[in-house]
Amino acid sequence: MTSPFVSSEMLYLFNRGQLFHAYRTFGAHTVECGGETGVRFAVWAPRARDVRVAGAFNGWNGANHRLEPAGTTGVWIGFVPGIGEGEIYKYEIVDASGNLKLKADPFAFHAELRPATASVVARPDGYEWQDREWLESRRKRAPYDRPMLVYEVHLGSWRTDGPGSFRSYERLAEELVDYVAEMGYTHIEVLPLTEHPLDQSWGYQATGYFAPTSRYGPPEGLKLLVDRCHRRGIGVLLDWVPGHFCKDEHGLRLFDGTPQFEPDDWRLAEKPLWGTLAFDFGKPEVQSFLISNAIYWLEVYHVDGLRVDAVASMIDLHFDKPAEMHTRNRRGGTEHLEAIEFLRKLNETVFRYFPDALMVAEDSSAWPGVTSPTYLGGLGFNYKWNMGWMNDSLKYMQTDPSRRPSVHSLLTFSLLYAYSENYVLPLSHDEVVHGKGSLLGKMPGTYEEKFANLRLYYGYWMTHPGKKLLFMGGEFGQFDEWKDAAELDWPLLRYPLHDAMRRYVRDLNALYGAEAALWEQDHHPDGFRWIDADNAAQAMLTYVRFARDERRHLVCVCNFSRTFYPVYRIGVPGGTAYRPIMSSDFADYGGSGCRMPRQAKAERKPLHGQTFSIGIPVPPLTFLLLEPEPYAVL
């Protein structure tokens, strides 16, 4: 079997960990060779004795379709004439011991629908994009001083056509995108879409890193979904999992019969928490594979960024491992030095090609400098999930209001480190599964108080410094925790308080997008100022959010108690009138409808370190947002 030319330079760069568009060389590509049309195959299997291509076209017997080794590069290349797009195939790999195994193509651009496991010949290009205006505008704006309100989605359970069925990418391009636009989100974040064998893994244990899962249709459908998001002004983030891969026989595990993508040392390879295998981050070819995969999703699918999963598990050699699996790095420490260098290289490369990308670390550790530049010793991400804020604030909200004064610091501590990284405040899928209950279910009190608590919590969350992320279902107060095998409990919208919650979240989202004070200085201390952080006795927080123009500010009042205050006095930064623009207690949102004054005139009565103060009614379990009319005189 003859082979079209693959340059030695490409193979050299791959072996050096520098082939950042490796998908253009590896995998199955339709080409012409010697006047014949067919498919060129290229695969890395350095310790294989023989590599062949098997498929329906040859009766799953690759004896007559052998690939040739490209010198000592570990790469095997070949050309099969007379086949093209839609052909299913696998690699027949004969390992050093003579054992034969069938493996899916690590670089396949499409895959069969599970439970079938073959790769499918497909073109990565050919879609006619219509999002040029979005891409050009994206290049002109930095994310830091812009609103970022993310709707996290699992495509398989947002809406379904019944048990075991999935909405297609094309249908989601209409229904999901319209819904997200109506609700006022700026981005969607999709749980991993790389091909995976088990529905219940939600995509976090993959076999096909370059193949969008076929559960929702062909790859062109995903491009349509991203394209329509962009045409509606919505960015797209993709959950991406470079930390580990599943052990299914047709996948990456022991690909050439030996540890290839995974480390040789089983203590480094095994991830006991998930029953998976770690990548060997120090291996140059693995770096080429993973970094080119990140570039692939940004380039070929036009996604706006990646949320990198489980960073803490990558950078800590002891993460969730028993003592018998503990290892040390070459310096005697427990940091995974190769993983750390890989993450730095990943981010440097992504930003070289896509300076406007979002690279978000899901990191539960206290590792410093996750969002600092690599040249300053950081990991080089531009955002990090604030897991500390999430854990503390949910713990506080789960506390009965009568006991909240004793845990007041859970809400205020986050401001001591809010500017140490560029943070996203996540209320993600991880908080509403595995017996944790839904966000609404976590709230204490009566049926009505649960909704009041959640509306209050959303107000506090929306006005706390940092970008925002909410998992689907949270916007209408799903009562049950997330069920990945069924669609969201949309029928709940027939009940008044759930429909009111959806309206509240929609209006709160719109208010967030319209008010620069809530995002323009998210990552600068000048954007936030406490009015009173220490009123634990009354379970009350008051603070101000500022735009760059300090006259454009918002006063935030959070009453976490069951007490109604007919007149609650707070210090304010401006000597003008303040008017309420949002109350979680409005009757339309399911609240009591406590009558609020049209405005509260600031009086020269010093309080809370301010020259002026106002007195306003504050209902129980209520979030209030006030703005100066028209601008405060500071």
How would you characterize the overall build of this protein?
By secondary structure, the protein is α/β, with parallel strands linked by helices. The protein is built from 14 helices and 30 strands. It has an eight-stranded parallel β-barrel with strand order 10-11-14-18-19-20-21-22. The protein has a six-stranded antiparallel beta sheet with strand order 23-24-25-30-27-28. Strands 3, 6, 7, 8 and 9 form a five-stranded antiparallel beta sheet that branches. Helix 7 (284-300) runs parallel beside helix 9 (337-353). The mean pLDDT is 96.
Q: Describe the biggest sheet?
A: 8 strands, parallel, barrel
Proportion of helical residues: 10-25%
According to DSSP, the number of beta strands is 30
Oligomerization state of this entry?
single chain
Query: Order of strands in the sheet with the most strands?
Result: 10-11-14-18-19-20-21-22
Helix/strand-derived category reads alpha/beta
